[in-house]
Amino acid sequence: MNEKYAAITRDGLWNNNVVFAQMLALCPTLAVTSSATNGVGMGLATTAVLVLSNVIISSVRELVSPEVRIPVYIVLIATLVTLVDMSLNAWAHELYKVLGLFIALIVVNCAILGRAESFASKNGMADSALDGLMMGLGFTASLVLIGGVREIFGSGTLFSNAHLLLGPAFAFLETTVVPEYKGFLLMILPPGGFMVVGLLLAAKRVLDQRRAARVALVAQEA
Amino acid sequence: MNLEELRGKLSYQGILLGGVALLTSAALAFASRATEADIKAAEAADLKQSLSQVLPGEYENDLLKDTVTLPGKEGEVLVYRARRAGKVEAVVYRVTGHGYAGKIVCVMGVSSAGKVLGVRVLSHKETPGLGDKIEPAKADWIHSFEGKYLGDPPLEKWAVKKDGGIFDQFAGATITPRGVVNAVKGGLEFFDASKAQLLDEAGGVK
Question: Would you tell me which of A39, A171, A180, B163 could form a disulfide with A143, CB atoms 3.0–4.6 Å apart?
């Protein structure tokens, strides 16, 4: 049992990472990762929706006919996102002013439908909740990494404006990496996003291949 | 009949889709009613906060309730009025400039004497790192309008330095500050043209 949870965790965080393995959700990824703080915001909002949608869809999976599952999932996810959007706007308005932009973008995030289709529709509620959480955290980590790289090269800072998103307690995260940096606009604009995603993707492949080669070597010797 | 067989039936699928649509719309309708008042209150508080940024000092009336709508160059302008001792001391309204990448929406406060009290950018799509220095969080530039009026600087000097005016442009971005300067200048011309109605004490009080 524990092994299964460990596998779900590894899948979400690394092996089957939303951005770097499934190559899903690239549109919101490229759009918001101009800074690491934006990555945190988008990642956390997506994680919350992903956990909820996975739980709901896994709880109704027995009732849904396979032939009409896609429209049912889409309606459920869209409703969920709208509900989150309205409740945040009404009862957590300060948070909404920061995350509002990201929540609207979650509707077009195909990673949510992807997880509903490939995991929640086939697994129990607890497993699906964990899958949503881990996929979400893996997504968040990817966004923070991409955003961090773009921010350091683009504006010479890291986690700027973190206090607006996470509260004054997190102001310590805001660092100026390169003082008096004039900025490198390309990295902030969409082309920079493509470049960073591409380079990080290549780096992950290299790491994975090296690890596979090591495992093969050990198997050979044994 | 078990669930497996049932799921294959066309009628079941139709009812399922209809049921899901009904349930989700009911949930949305309920949530919309439950959140409506709170969202309105929060948005009013936001508006008040953005108004108070361009209106230093205390005023006795509720700005959101003391408004007049007047014709401007680009459609009608909704004006909020701030009073002390019953007299209109300042007015606040939106002006729109044309930047490098679309509209720049600003809110400006003007005293009854026609002086700019403050300008803030509400929304823009300018290039991050170049044109976004119009935001007070990124640079002090937007404060350079404070205390200015048509006459100081003279009308022809209401432009960025590149165009022979007195306002700074940014390195690599001239169109953005030009758009904001033009918007503020247009706002002051609107004030001059509609001064009588704007400062009319009776009108607009609810």
Answer: A39
